[in-house]
Every structure is written in structure tokens, then in C-alpha cells.
Write a structure and sequence with these properties.
Number of helices of chain B: 3
Oligomer: heterodimer
Largest sheet of chain A: none
Number of helices of chain A: 2
Largest interface: A-B, 35 and 51 residues
Strand content of chain A: under 5%
Number of strands of chain A: 1
Shape of chain A: flat
Radius of gyration of chain A: 18 Å
Number of strands of chain B: 9
Largest sheet of chain B: 9 strands, mixed
Order of helices and strands of chain B: EEEEEHEHHEEE
Helix content of chain B: 25-40%
């Protein structure tokens, strides 16, 4: 794919690589996930603006 | 996105993405991960340099490959892909260092007009979420699709 096509596509064209299946079920950024869980437990989620 | 971005590859569930940063420091593999948090439908977004030989990730590295805008635009693009498959998802992102947090903020600021068309964007300040304001300092960011019916 040409980069121009890629740049013009807001919705990206996704290419699958089976090699990345090796990460399935793993957490690569454990510290960040733990920190995210701590923060989310404390602050929860924001209310979405009403339409 | 306003910036050019790298082509990337992913796996079928769209939780992991890989692309290669190209610059004066050479070709550096980057890995983006979306992981489930303890809150339903909320996913933690993280990315860093991937050392294929060691099989390890470094999310604190400052690569200085001269392409941070392009790298951020690529990561932002994965948000479109991921939420295309999981339209109800909230994406949480916090930088591992202050430099990283500034980098995230810069990426959101530079692309806010376009991102805001499709996403609600929140910043975490003093342990409270607020709608993202350009120029404000935040500890973390949260985005979720406005149009949840969208699918890839």
C-alpha cells in the first residue's frame, strides 16, 4: 500500500501477522496495567456528555 | 491524522500491533498493546520499543529517532482500528515518564480536531476526569468512541 493511501484513510487498513499471536494472553506492560487498575479503581470513569 | 504514519501489523483480535520506526538511529521495532483492565470495557494502551532478540519491551526508552510525531500518529491510528472492532471500549493511556505524558498530550493536541470528531477525549487531573483541554497538564488520558455503532 502507498503511504498516501494510508494517510488518507481515517479508518486504517489492518494487516494481520500471525507471528503476533505469540503475545496472545500475555501482558507485556505489566507495571502500566497495574497502575491503570489502581487509578481506575480510585477515579472510575467519567460521565459521557449527553446528546 | 494530520501526520504521516507507519504501516503496522496486528493479530486477529487486534490487541497487539507492530511497526518499525525509521530514523537516524536506525530501524526500531515498536509494539503497541491493548490490555484488559479490571474495569469492563476499559483497555490500557501501552507502547514501547520491542527487542526481538530478548523478547522484551522498553516503555521508558527515549529513542530520539526523529519521528515522534509519526510514531504517535501511528499509535493513534491503532486506536481507530481497535475501537473499530471494540466500539464500546474506553482506552486508557498514561505515560511511564513525564516525557511520555507530554508526548501523549502533544499527540492529542496536534490531532484533537480530527480525534474529537470521532471520540470523547478526557484528561485526568487531580484525580478527576475532565474533557481534554489543549495546554492543560494531565496524569492520564481516556478516549471512547462517540458513535458506538461503528464497526470495521
Amino acid at each position: 500500500m502507498k503511504i498516501e493511501q494510508l494517510n488518507n484513510a481515517k479508518i486504517p487498513i489492518v494487516r494481520i501477522n500471525k507471528r503476533l499471536e505469540q503475545f496472545k494472553g500475555k501482558v507485556l506492560f505489566k507495571e502500566k496495567l497495574e497502575q491503570a487498575n489502581k487509578t481506575l479503581a480510585k477515579v472510575g470513569l467519567p460521565d459521557l456528555p449527553k446528546k | 491524522m494530520n501526520y504521516s504514519r507507519y504501516e503496522y501489523e496486528t493479530e486477529e483480535e487486534l490487541f497487539f500491533y507492530e511497526f518499525t520506526s525509521e530514523g537516524p538511529k536506525g530501524n526500531i521495532k515498536k509494539l503497541v498493546e491493548y490490555s484488559k483492565t479490571s474495569v469492563e470495557n476499559v483497555y490500557n494502551l501501552a507502547f514501547g520499543d520491542y527487542d526481538e532478540e530478548k523478547g522484551g519491551i522498553d516503555d521508558k526508552s527515549i529513542t530520539n529517532n526523529g519521528d515522534s510525531q509519526k510514531v504517535l500518529a501511528t499509535v493513534a491510528s491503532t486506536v481507530y482500528a481497535f475501537t473499530g472492532k471494540y466500539p464500546d471500549a474506553y482506552i486508557y493511556a498514561a505515560g511511564s515518564t513525564n516525557v511520555r505524558i507530554r508526548l501523549y498530550r502533544m499527540g492529542l493536541t496536534n490531532n484533537l480536531t480530527e480525534i474529537s470528531e470521532d471520540f470523547f477525549v478526557f484528561g485526568l487531573k487531580d484525580e478527576k476526569w475532565e474533557m481534554f483541554i489543549v495546554g492543560e497538564d494531565y496524569d492520564a488520558f481516556l478516549v471512547t468512541r462517540k458513535n458506538r455503532k461503528f464497526e470495521l
